[in-house]
Write a structure and sequence with these properties.
four-stranded antiparallel beta sheet, elongated, alpha+beta, Double Stranded RNA Binding Domain, 16% strand
Length: 133
């Protein structure tokens, strides 16, 4: 588990968007977090390469993770929430996925599947047969 040091994170604050009335118009409560993967001292080179590969769709300028939080009313709560989101994102990305074991369906499951297909086929076939008087 990796915990990112506050010194490696850049914060910028702006006014939040959306409803909120006068409070939103007067306070800079929206927080944008900026974290550079390549310049981080908390991560090993191997971890940096994994993050760059696995988070390439989330990166700005091929090395920065940007997180914007404006859900809370005050700046401190949004800042804490953004740091928590960053730590969760990094730790989830560093987890190795389990290898899939190739398996075959059992004989009974194959038989059940074919039986159900046959019964559905019979139902549809009976539906289309013309009635002779």
């Amino acid at each position: 588990m990796v915990i990112i040091d506050y010194n490696e994170i850049e914060f910028s604050v702006t006014r939040s968007q959306g409803p909120g009335g006068q409070h939103v118009n007067r306070t800079n409560s929206c927080v944008q977090l900026r974290f550079s993967i390549l310049e981080s001292a908390c991560l090993t080179d191997e971890q940096k390469q994994k993050l760059l590969f696995r988070l390439k769709h989330r990166l700005a300028q091929d090395e920065f993770i940007l997180i914007r939080v404006e859900s809370e009313r005050d700046q401190k709560s949004n800042k804490d929430k953004s740091v928590k989101m960053l730590n969760e994102l990094i730790n989830q990305s560093l987890i190795e996925p389990k290898k899939r074991k190739a398996t075959k369906p059992t004989k009974s499951s194959q038989r059940k599947r074919l039986d159900s297909k046959k019964s559905r086929s019979d139902i549809k076939k009976n539906r289309s047969e013309k009635i002779k008087y």
